[in-house]
Amino acid sequence: MYDRSLVTTEVAAPYSLAPAEAARILESLRRNGVAALRGFIPAQDAAQLHDTAETATTPGFIYGESNKLSIKTAMSEGTRDFSHPFLVSATAARIVTTGALLDLVEKFLGDRPIIHHGLLQRSLPLEDPILDWHIDCGSNKSLNGIAKFPDVRLRSILYLSDVESGGLGYILDSASEALPVFMPLHEGELFPSDKVPTDPERQVAMNERAGTLILFNTHGLHRPEVPKKERLVMNVWFARRDFSARLPAVMFSLSNVPAANRDRLYVFDNERGPETIHAPKPVSSPSVIRRLIRRVAG
Ligand SMILES: O=C(O)CCC(=O)C(=O)O
After folding, report:
1. Ligand 1 contact via 226 beta carbon (within 6 Å)
2. What is the CATH number of the domain that holds 100?
3. 297 pLDDT exceeds 60?
4. The model scores a pTM over 0.85
5. Is 44 exposed, middle or buried (0-12, 13-18, 19+ CB in 10 A)?
């Protein structure tokens, strides 16, 4: 049974959770499927990550050219995404290797967590919603096609700007009823509106200040509410080690992980091994073809 009063916890000291705080957050995750941790990330760290996220989600941004990498910002309707927060930000790497957070995630998942996916995301102001109530059962589509995976995962959204509109919308205690409805839907089919619980007491819109870390069970019904202003966040999906889909390796820089957190490096070890490599199809360069044509013609 849901309990709205448990959803928000004021965390007394950043990056740590007193036993009573951890117990309350876990209870909210178990009963409501969602919890907001106010003050878990100090304002100055949220501000630093905000600036990195702003740069990395600027159209045209490319990371790693000096190393012949070219990781680009991905554009979609209403959002700009950069998929490698732990390569570009020591704050991002510190957050996901923090013991208090990982202990909590482990208790919820029942297994040592691995990172399934991470994302710095800028949401643009909108007039109308672009995403309605749904649950996350997905994986990396280029590795797994359209398959849905029922594995339990916990997602975190860290607000990097103050969110006064367009926060995460969540329906409390909806995971166990939503999963069996969502799984058989065809690709692209929307969650049936007559199956969305209507009790307003079960619906929360998480408009919170920068530095608030929201955790939620991905099987609970959720949607982004319509943002009136730009919103910057970091999204991270945590899975159990036995997650059933193929996963892309999680890229991080060791120099971004504080020495004191290195016993938690397992969070990057998603144990699927690297993506299989394929030799490129042979291509003839246009200049070679032009030279051949010139030789034959001339
Ligand atoms: O960003 C949000 O507040 C929620 C986004 C969402 O529903 C999704 O990406 O699945």
Report:
1. no
2. 2.60.120.620
3. no
4. yes
5. exposed
